[in-house]
Specification:
This protein is of the alpha/beta class. It has five helices and eight strands, in the order βααββββαβαβαβ. It binds pyrazine-2-carboxylic acid. The site of pyrazine-2-carboxylic acid (VGL) has 10 residues, from helix 4.
Length: about 200
């Protein structure tokens, strides 16, 4: 039987790898944000380190941004799950000011959809799934591997990683550069298990 190589501490980047920086936005990463993820502020520096490593190796860096209309069934105020967050053109929707932005930004949830994954959005009424354009950006660059970091581990990072696996990318998640919402205690750990079971490498 072939031996499984020991995981390396740092993620290996190259020109066929994309670092997908998920939703590092004020509403998630700033303690004053409306859906602040505990530890989200501490994650920004670790994400920046990852961006630096990726850029140094010539990897593609791309960002996702939750970008909702003021009213959407995604929000608790309109019958959904979440407090109002990342409303387009507001402070909460802006990328965190300390984040190194060095690549394109893909917006999701723009038409009132649930936009958990960076790759796809789902109409909350019809269930219809539509692409965000991220997959096209990666295909144009012949990307084969995806590394996911950002917020939140158990919501948008998880959805992004699972979609990346489904789309055929060799997918890994740098867990230290993420933080969970933990709507239910243990959601973060369960997300890691789910991503691992689906085939993601957890760093
Ligand atoms: C997210 C909850 C609701 C996230 C987005 O970016 O993880 N979480 N919408």
């Amino acid at each position: 039987m072939a031996e499984t190589p020991a995981p390396t501490a740092a993620t290996d980047y190259d020109t066929r790898t994309a670092l997908v920086v998920v939703d590092v936005q004020n509403d998630f990463a700033d303690p004053d944000g409306s859906l602040f993820v505990r530890g989200g502020d501490a994650v920004v520096d670790l994400v920046n380190d990852e961006i630096e490593r990726a850029r140094a190796a010539g990897a593609f860096v791309v960002y996702t941004q939750d970008w909702h209309p003021p009213e959407t069934p995604h929000f608790v105020t309109d019958g959904g799950t979440w407090p109002v967050h990342c409303v387009r053109d507001t402070w909460g929707a802006e990328l965190h000011p300390s984040l190194t932005v060095d690549g394109p930004v893909v917006r999701k949830g723009t038409g009132g959809e649930d936009g958990y994954s960076g790759f796809s959005m789902q109409d909350p009424d019809s269930g219809e799934v539509s692409p965000t354009g991220l997959d096209d950006l990666l295909r144009e660059r012949d990307i084969e591997r995806v590394v996911a970091v950002g917020l939140a581990l158990d919501v948008c990072v998880k959805a992004t990683a699972l979609d990346a696996i489904d789309l055929g990318y060799d997918t890994s998640v740098v867990v230290d550069a993420t933080a969970p919402v933990d709507l239910e205690p243990g959601d973060g750990e369960r997300a890691v298990e789910a991503m691992q079971t689906a085939g993601a490498t957890i760093r």
